[in-house]
Amino acid sequence: MNFAAWQSLAPEAAARLVHKRVAALPPAQQCAAIAWLAPEDRLAAELAGTSSTSSSNLNSPLRGVPFAAKDLFDAAGLPTFAGSTFLPEVRPASETDGAFIRDVRATGATLAAKAHMHEFAYGITGENPHYGDCELPGHLGRTTGGSSSGSALLVKAGVVPFALGTDTGGSIRVPSAFCGLYGFRLTPRHPWIADGYPLAESFDTPGFFTNNAADLHTLLDVLVPGRAGNAQSQNPKGAYLALPGLDPAVERAFHAAAPRLAEPLPASVATELFPLFAPAAELYAILGGAETRVIHAPFYARYRDRYDANVRARIDRALTLTDAEIARAQANRDAITAAWAALFRDYDYLVLPGSPCPAITKAECTVEMRSRILSLTVPASMASLPVLALPVPLSDMSGLTTALQIVVPSIHSPAIRHALALHG
Q1: What is the pLDDT along the chain (424 residues), one digit of tens a residue?
Q2: CA atoms within a 13 Å half-sphere pointing along the CA-CB vector of 65
Q3: Residues 215 and 161 sit within 8 Å (Cβ to Cβ)
Q4: In 208-229, which positions are buried (b, 16+ CB within 10 angstroms) versus exposed (e)?
Q5: Separation between Cα atoms, residue 82 and residue 88, nearest integer Å
């Protein structure tokens, strides 16, 4: 169901449908995905615009549309767990909505649920030992990807037509690829992420998912309006680059889909980018870890045993980082940022693969797979760039998907809507 279909329902019917679709999920997936669900009567009142938290924006294309939010964004009066079991013990519930939920509610949309996530957003697979692993609807046993795992699951399952997430190293792009969703990440230090619970503040970005291109276009128009440009900007110039390490099926899908959006990047330019991108995942882990250890320092020793073992291992590794390691990683980040800036002098966007493989199984959630995935997504993160994620089906793989990353220099770039239209 798209936005218009939801808006065509009476508020009571829409609220009932949200709860019906939640109930249709396997019980383990309800637990894995949902941190909080609005009671049906409250949800109906807010969809109808009769509650104290409803917006008076009667003409908005989001009026009466339910949405979910990743549980690192504050909602008034609700605890924020960020995928943990203890965060409310060290960070009390906010009395007001965080900026992202506040601004989306101001468009007339209604918060239906808060969604679980990879603990503290420190993971790309969507696993969570406390609440359960989010699995791809229709393909149980395969992960949704993370860390915005619950948000992606609720959109893919049709519980809500859009959801808010975050993307630090790929946490919107990877679930988009695995779940066949449309996604968009903005940029670090955007006001919508400023009061969300952080992972690594110079990398964290807000963003969102939809099930279809038209709804994503609507979200962009309402939340991230484009800016008027010159005549040349109305026909953006793009290029595509196939990074190494793709499964054969993904590589075939990329080479079938990318040429519809752009020409191949000249070999001379690709040759300059490959050695910069190659170590990016490892060096991103150093820079992100250095920021994460600062965020968790006030309570890590006291609560260490209550962390997900994999998250705990990453923080423990971060605590051993040296100044020399951080400086080396920062030099790589600076070089990647400069290379992107040079690229954008000649091109308006670059198309990259969004995942090296389709949605993975629990057994495939390894350190090696994490590095393999991040090697595709981190090059854009290192330069703080916005990215549009466009789903791509994988032929002969029973509905499994990957994605294209459309990397642009600005959240207002006309290339975003240009690529969305070409793909759509």
Answers
A1: 999 999 999 999 999 999 999 999 999 999 999 999 999 999 999 999 876 566 666 788 999 999 999 999 999 999 999 999 999 999 999 999 999 999 999 999 999 999 999 999 999 999 999 999 999 999 999 999 999 999 999 999 999 999 999 999 999 999 999 999 999 999 999 999 999 999 999 999 999 999 999 999 999 999 998 765 543 457 899 999 999 999 999 999 999 999 999 999 999 999 999 999 999 999 999 999 999 999 999 999 999 999 999 999 999 999 999 999 999 999 999 999 999 999 999 999 999 999 999 999 999 999 999 999 999 999 999 999 999 999 999 998 899 999 999 999 999 999 999 999 999 7
A2: 29
A3: yes
A4: bbbbbeebbbbbbebbbebeee
A5: 9
**pTM of the full predicted structure?**
0.96
Beta strands 263-264; 238-240: pairing state: parallel
Element (H, E) at 424: none
Residue 309 is assigned to a structural domain of this protein: no
Locus of tokens 């809507």: 417
Q: Give the tokens for residue 162.
A: 């859009």
- Residue 54 resides in a domain: yes
Query: At which residue do the structure tokens 């619970």 appear?
Result: 197
Residue 28 domain boundaries: 1-267+348-424
Report phi then psi at 226, rounded to 5.
Answer: -70, 165
**170 contacts 377 by C-beta, under 8 angstroms:** yes
Let me know: does 415 contact 236? Beta carbons within 8 Å.
yes
Residue 336 counted as domain residue: no
Integer angstrom CA distances of residue 255 from 250, 353, 372: 9, 10, 19
Q: What's phi and psi for 128, nearest 5 deg?
A: -155, 110
Number of domains within the chain: 1
CATH number of the domain that 368 lies in?
3.90.1300.10
- The amino acid sitting at 256 is A
| End-to-end Cα distance, the chain | 17
If DSSP states are collapsed to H, E and C, what string results for 137-191?
A: CCCCCEECCCCCHHHHHHHHCCCCCEEEEECCCCCCHHHHHHHCCEEEECCCCCC
Q: Record the tokens describing residue 164, joined without a space.
A: 């808010």
Residue with tokens 């705990």: 312
Domain assignment of residue 147, yes or no: yes
CA separation for the pair 112, 159 (Å, rounded): 9
**What three-state secondary structure class fits 331?**
helix
Closest by Cα among 93, 35, 134, 49 to 365: 134
